[in-house]
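hey so i finaly got around to running the thing on GDP-fucose protein o-fucosyltransferase family protein from Gigaspora margarita. pasting the sequence first so u can double check i didnt mess up the copy paste, my clipboard has been acting weird all day
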Amino acid sequence: MTFLPILYKTFGKMAIYLTAHELTKLLTLLLLFVFIISDIVLFTTYEDELQRMLLPHLEEDNDSKLIPTNTYLNNHDSFHDLYENDLYENLNIKEIEDNFLSDSEVNKKYCKKEKDCKFLFMYYHSGQESKANIHLKTFSHIAGILNRTMVLTNVGRSRIESCNQFPFEFYYNLNALRKLLPNVNFISQLEFESWFRNRFEKPSIQHLHFSHGDSLMPLLEHVNPIIEPVTYISCFNKFNMRFDHSAIFQRIFINSKVLFQVNDGNDSSTLLIKNLMNSDADILLIKDDIGEEILTQTYSTIPYANHIINEALRVKIALKSYVAVYWHMEGVNPESLIECAKQLSNTLQYIREIHGIHNVYLSTDYPMSIELNDPFSKFSHLTKYYNQVMMILNSTMGINIHSRISFDVFGELRNKVGDNDEFIATDGVQRILDRIICIDADYFLSGPANCCEQLNAFTKTIVNARTELSKSETKLQNIISRW
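ok and heres what it spat out for the 3d tokens, dont ask me to read them lol
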């Protein structure tokens, strides 16, 4: 046998000769030894971090609370306290990255089905909360008909939109909604985001844009949008929703004036639902630019959250019997405001003499807080006129003028959430509270044509609610009157 002296080492008088085969085995053993030592070092170094990563998947946490979006949490640690106080007691979820679950297991976790996990997501409505509220309830009803899970869109600044920072229950009572629509399954936007991110096979998408049209029947056309703006503007990029060539984009034109007229045995709303039933997409994304109700001609709304109802109750108890005045000042000729205030003062005195009501709750779109009453506000040109208006009203004999500022509404909630536009602006949660107080007032006033916008969505919701309330509530002295 021929030996290749490739390694020579002398141990005393002993010489060692190795073949190439024997050297290969020796090097393999040495490399294996190095890998084992490195693994032991890595495991020892990162043992604590591995436990933190794995434990949430091995233990069930029954004390978790619904949390707002990650961006908001990073900037507002005080928001944790808000949720720990059971403000969102109706949902018990935790955002977990289910990296170890198959798609069928992810589906089962989030929509109780291993297959055909389908959602309807009205991610945007162009109107204020009073309109968007009704439409979200409508699409929730449609989701039930289509056997789809309804995504509860985020809220904020009197809007229902996917980019907003507050979860659905910041405005609404989910338990009450479930009682109104017992056959509909609901999922929070945060849960929906987790479901989407954790799917290995990304879900199919159909995007529907509801727009106004002139046809007697709904018209549908395919569109080719620029994807990036859709993704960015709607914040879909934050939970990895990517639109590729398989995504379907359609626009549905609806004439709301003839929506409920019957044609060939079907009205438009029935045909609309039949069309949606034909969709096989996992996700129906809805962009809603329709102002009117598209399913029924009843204007019932989603009930509001307990913390809003309780705050309104606190104000109403303090006021006892009261007149609610809604004055929409935007767009009004500033010089006419003084005469309007004098007319309102005379009307309030008349109501006091006839009905004996001394307290007045004033709801207005004019920013009463110091933060917004500045030269850069869109109402800055009204400042001197508004000050004169308040002087006239406050000097009205025997009348006490109150507002949300008088009662420091949501003071406790504001302290927990932190400095936020939701509590500074005239819209948002404070606007919802104003509407509730106006609905329950003994007497409700709004301005004449030269002083106030006549019938916007805010006033219309109040009138509809007071009309229903008058059927059983004897304390109401009117539905709406103009001063």
